[in-house]
Amino acid sequence: MFKNLLSIWLYFSLCAIAFGQDSYQIKGSVINASTLHPIEGVNIIGKNLYAISSNTGNFVIDNVIKGSSYTFTISHLGFDSQTVTIKVKSPIEFMPIYLIETATVLEEIKVIGKSKRRKIKELPIVAQSVSKEFLNNNRENSLMQTLSKIPGVSTINIGSGQSKPVIRGLGFNRVAVVQNGIKHEAQQWGNDHGLEIDQQGIEQIQIIKGPASLLYGSDAIAGVVDIQPNKIPSPNSFSGEVNILGESNNDLLGISTGIVSRKAKWFYRSRLTYRDYGDYKVPTDKINYENYVFSLHNNNLRNTAGKEADASFSVGFISDKITSETVFSNVNAKNGFFANAHGLEVRTSSIDYDTSNRDIDLPFHKVNHFKITNNTSIKTENHKLYFDFGYQNNHREEHSEAVPHGYMPKPPSTKERLFKKNTYSFNMRDAFKPNNHNNMVVGLNIEYQDNSIGGWGFLIPEYNRFTAGVFGYDQYKINHNLHLLAGLRYDYGMIDTKAYKDWFPSTINNNDNSTSYVYLQRSKDKVLNFGNLSASLGLSYIYKNTTYKVNVGRSFRMPLANELASDGVNYHMYRYERGNLDLDPEISYQLDVDIDHSTKSFSIGVSPFINIFQNYIYLNPTANYYETLQIYEYTQAKVFRIGGEFRANTNISKNLQLDASVEYVYSKQTSGPKEGFTLPFSPPLSGVISANYKLKNILFFKKPKLVADYRITASQNEIVPPEEITDGYQVLNMSYLAQMDVFKKHLPVEMRLKLNNVFDTKYYNHTSFYRLIDVPEAGRNLSLSLTIPF
Predict the structure, then answer these.
(1) Architecture of domain 116-789
(2) Is the separation of the CB atoms in 55 and 37 below 8 Å?
C-alpha cells in the first residue's frame, strides 16, 4: 500500500515539473565561486521580472516568452554584481550563476554584523550546531547514530534501526529531544525503545551539552537534542528532492521524497519516507548467552529486520508581523528483536528464524507516533511572542510467544505489552529588549500526559502526568565581547498512578500452612506531587580569535512512572523490576567550561565539566529473586561525575583537512548500595581522527572528496554488575562524496558511498543494548545514497 502511495507521490511531483514547462521558465542556481556553496537571498532583477534565490541557491522565473532574450542583474551583499543575458529556446532554460566575494565588504561584515556563529559565541552555554551538510554526509541508520560522531554524544543502540541519545554518559529521560519547539514524548524510559523521528529532511540541530532545565524543563537535566524548524522558503519558489539509500550489511532499501513550495505569504512542505531492511550481520558465527551457545546462520543476527514508513506535511504563513507553521507527521515502524535477547525460551521455540533474513518473527515491536505541532511568532513594537502547541499520540505494542511464566497460564495472544501515550504541550515565550544591553526572555511550559497500558505482561501502571514551569532569563551585554546570562525557573509536577492486579491468580503459602490463590496487586492508586527550582549563571568572553565560556547551573528531574511504580518482569532485560514510591526528584549541580580558539586554517577547543548529583535514580540489582529472575529495585545515590571533550581541526593544504576529537566521562557513586561503582552504560574514553581530502574532478564526478574516520576506543573496566568489562577497539570508516551532473540544466545529484567497519572488526560497544548478551557490533557495511534535487 505504501509503495503505491509513494509511486503516486512521485508521479505528481513529476507532473508538477511538467506543468510548469508549458508556460516556459528560467531556472537557475546561484553559487559562491570560491566555496561552491549555494547563496541564499540573491536578487535576480530583469525588466518586469524578479526572483530571490532560496536556501539551496535555486530560483525560478515564470512567464517568459519563447525566442525572447532577457537581461538580469544579479546582486547580493558581499559579492560583485553580475549582468547576465539569456535567450529562451526550450520550455526550461537553466542559468547557473557564480558570484565572486567582495573582500572589502566581507571585512565590514566581520566587524559589524552579528552572524549566527557570533550569537552562539555570545551565549555562555556549551552548544554545537549541526548543519544539513553534516547530517547528509554522516547519515547512518538512525538519527542518533548519525549524531554520534559529535564529541560528547553517543548512543544506546537497539539493533541496526533504533537508538537513543546519550550525552556525556547520561541518557533515557535525562536527555530531552525537541522537535519544532515541542519535547518528543514516547516510551523513552525503556532500554529497547528508540526515537520515532524521521531523520530525512532535517536541516539544523542544536545539541546542548550539560543541564538545560532552565529552558526545557525536567527531562533536560543532562542535555538537549534540539531539532530546529526548517528555514522558511523564499517567495515564489518550488523545490524538491528524492533520497535513495541502499546498504549491504542488512540489505536495506530506502527512499524518501520531499517537496517545498511558497507563493507570496503561504508555503508548504511535505515528505514521504520508506525503509525496509533485513537481519544485520555481525563478524561472528555464534553468540554465548548465559553459557548457552547460539549459532548464527550466515552471520545474521536473526530477527533484527524491520520496516518503517514516515509521512509529514506542513502549511505555513508569513507576513511582516506573524509567522506560523503547522506540521503533521506520522512515523510507523515494525522491528524484530534478536530472538535470544528475550531469554532462553527460544531454545524450545518452533519458529524457524533462519527461513529468511527479511521476515519479522516473534519477538517484535510495532510503534506508531503521530504528532501535530504549531509554531507561531508575533512581532510587536518592542516584543516578539513565541507560541508552540503540540499533540502527540504514541502507540507501542510488544509481541512475544505466548508462553506461560510462573503461575501465569499460557497467555491468550502474542500481545505482551501495550503502551498508549497522549501528550498535550504548550509553550509561550516573550523576548524583548528593554535597552541596548539586555536581551530578556520570560516563558511558560505546560504539558499533560495520559498513559494507558494493555497486554498480558505488566511492567508499569497506567498513569497521568502534569508538569508546568515558569522561567525567565537575561542575557546582559557588559561590553561588545563580554556577555552575562542569568536565569531562574520553577517547575511543578504531578503524577497519578493507577491500581493494577494480575489477570491470573498466584499461589500464596500462608503461615498456617494453608494455600491461597490471590490476584496480586502490582500497583496502587497514588498521587505524587513534585516542585523544584532550576537556575543558571554563565559568562562568555570573546578575545580576538578565542572564546571563553563558563556556566554554573542547578537542574532537577521528576521521577518517572517506571521508577516509582514498576512491578513486573522485563523479559527484554530478563529481570524483575520494582519501583519505589519514596523517590525524590533528582537534583544536579554542574560547572561547564568551554574554550575555543579558531583561525582561518586552525581551530582547537576543550569543554571540561564537573557534575554532582544529590540523589541520582538508578536500577540496582539485589540479592533477591522472583521466579528464578533477579529482582532489580530503583534506588537513589549521590554521584560525582567529571569529564569533557577535546577537539581540533586544521587545513594541512588546500585539499587536505584533518579533524580530531576526544571524549571522556568519569562517574562514581559516592553513597548507596553501589558506593564506589560507576553508573550503568558509562561510555569509555574514545577518540576520532578524520581526514578529508578533496580530489580532482573525475569523469562526471564533480567536487569529489575522500573521507576517512578512524575511531579509537579504550576498554571499559569501570562497570556496574551485571555489566561486563568491554575491551577497547579501533574501527575504520571511509566515504567517497561527489556531485554528478546527470541531468543537464538541473542541479547536480549528490552521491555518498560509505564503507563502515572496513576491516570487518569484531568489537563490542559498551553502551549497546545487545552488549548485555555479548552481541558484537555490525560487521562491514557498504552503503550508497543519492540525493536527486528537482
Answers:
(1) Beta Barrel (2.40)
(2) no
Residue 624: beta bridge partners? none
- What cell was used for 148? 554520534
Report the percent of the chain where pLDDT is more than 70.
94
If you write DSSP's letter for every residue of 18-80 in order, what string do you get?
A: HHHHTT-EEEEEEEETTT--B-SS-EEEETTEEEE--TTSEEEE-S--TT-EEEEEEE-TTB-
The whole-angstrom distance between residue 551's C-alpha and the CA centroid of its chain comes to 25
Q: Is 91 exposed, middle or buried (0-12, 13-18, 19+ CB in 10 A)?
A: middle
Query: What does DSSP say about strands 43-46 and 170-171: parallel, antiparallel, or unpaired?
Result: unpaired
Which H or E run includes 459? none
Give exposure, 240-270, as e/b (b: 16+ Cβ within 10 Å): bbbbebebebbbbebbbbbbbbbeeeebebb
Question: Predicted confidence band at 537 (pLDDT cuts at 50, 70, 90)?
Answer: very high
Q: How far apart are CA 169 and CA 588, in angstroms?
A: 14
| Secondary structure class of 628 (helix, strand, coil) | coil
Look at residue 557 and tell me whether its pLDDT is greater than 90: yes
Say what the pTM is: 0.85
Cβ neighbours of residue 741 under 8 Å, at least 6 residues apart? 700, 702, 748, 749
Buried b (16+ CB within 10 A) or exposed e, 184-217: bbbbbebbbbbbbbbbbbbebbbbbbbbbbbbbb
Rounded Cα distance between 243 and 263, Å, is 25
Cell of 165: 541519545
Domain boundaries, given as residue ranges, for the chain: 2-104, 116-789
Please say whether the beta carbons of 141 and 161 come within 8 A: yes
Please name the amino acid found at residue 23.
S
Task: At 342, give phi and psi (nearest 5°).
Answer: -100, 20
Amino acid making up residue 63? N
Given a contact cutoff of 8 angstroms between Cβ atoms, the answer to whether 183 and 233 are in contact is no
Q: For residue 612, what is its C-alpha cell?
A: 554532582
Residues 539, 552: contact at Cβ < 8 Å? no
Euclidean distance between CA atoms 234 and 345, whole angstroms: 58
Q: Enumerate the H helices of 187-341 as residue ranges.
A: 213-216
Burial class of 687 by CB neighbour count within 10 A (0 to 12, 13 to 18, 19+): middle
362 three-state secondary structure: coil
> How far apart are the C-alpha atoms of 256 and 216, rounded to whole Å?
31
Q: For 747-774, write each residue's pLDDT tens digit.
A: 889 999 999 999 999 999 998 878 878 8
- Among 790, 664, 653, CA closest to 169: 664
| Beta strands at 69-75 and 127-131: parallel, antiparallel or unpaired | unpaired
pLDDT at residue 283 above 80? yes
pLDDT at residue number 21: 40
Phi, psi of 380 (to 5 degrees): -120, -170
CB-based contact 258:200 (threshold 8 Å): yes
Residues 6+ apart with CB under 8 A from 555: 211, 212, 213, 214, 220, 221, 534, 587, 588, 590
Q: Which helix (H) or strand (E) covers residue 7, if one does?
A: helix 2-21
Residues 148, 130: Cα–Cα separation, whole Å = 12
Q: pLDDT for 466-504, tens place per residue?
A: 999 999 999 999 999 999 999 999 999 999 999 999 999
Tens of pLDDT, residue by residue over 211-259, are 887 888 888 888 999 999 999 988 888 999 999 999 999 999 999 999 9
Using only the alpha carbons of the chain, give its radius of gyration: 28
CATH placement of domain 2-104: 2.60.40.1120
CA atoms within 13 A on the CB side of 447: 24
How far is the C-alpha of 323 from the C-alpha of 334, rounded, in Å? 37
CA distances to 43, 370, 498, 704 from 707, rounded to whole Å, are: 35, 37, 54, 10
